[in-house]
Design goal:
With 149 residues, the protein is mainly alpha-helical. It has a domain at 12-113: TerB-like (Orthogonal Bundle), CATH 1.10.3680. It contains seven helices and no strands. α1 runs antiparallel to α2 (33-46). It is globular and about 50 Å long.
């Protein structure tokens, strides 16, 4: 999923938990359709069994979800959730200060140290910019890079 992570399979329960966390990030400054689309795509593309809740059920249940580091089996899964949360924050075009604070709190709850959060955040920004690097308008790419920080 992310070029800076080794391939990682998440259990269905971890996918459900990650989706709920991503939805909480999206709620931070008002859910944007682009955020919902990203999360829904992740959920529906990752969940393996039809017997699990629909995305709409996960969406409804996410407001009451309480994060626990034990929902994820290892450090790599927890870091992946932080990365997914950062991506969710950027999905509407702006990773707001409120979203950044929310994701930092998520990272802390998942025992991801602040320096590692910063590395993940920078890697996400670099990955996003790399997707634009083929564009002929380098000036526009530079503007986006500046906006990303």
């Amino acid at each position: 999923m992310f070029p800076f992570f080794a391939p990682q399979s998440l259990s269905d329960s971890a996918i459900i938990a990650a989706s709920k966390i991503m939805l909480q990030v999206a709620r931070t400054d008002g859910i944007h359709p682009a955020e919902v689309a990203l999360i829904k795509s992740f959920y529906e593309g990752s969940i393996s069994a039809a017997s699990h809740p629909s995305f709409d059920e996960v969406l409804a249940a996410s407001a009451d979800y309480t994060l626990a580091a034990t929902d994820f089996s290892n450090e790599q899964e927890r870091e992946m959730v932080v990365a997914l949360s950062v991506m969710t924050g950027f999905a509407d075009g702006t990773f707001s200060d409120a979203e950044t604070a929310t994701v930092r709190a998520i990272a802390a709850s998942l025992n991801v140290v602040p320096a590692r959060f910063d590395e993940i955040n920078e890697a996400i920004k670099d990955h996003m910019l790399a997707q634009l690097s083929h564009l002929p308008d380098a000036g526009s790419v530079a503007v986006v890079a500046k906006e990303l920080g």
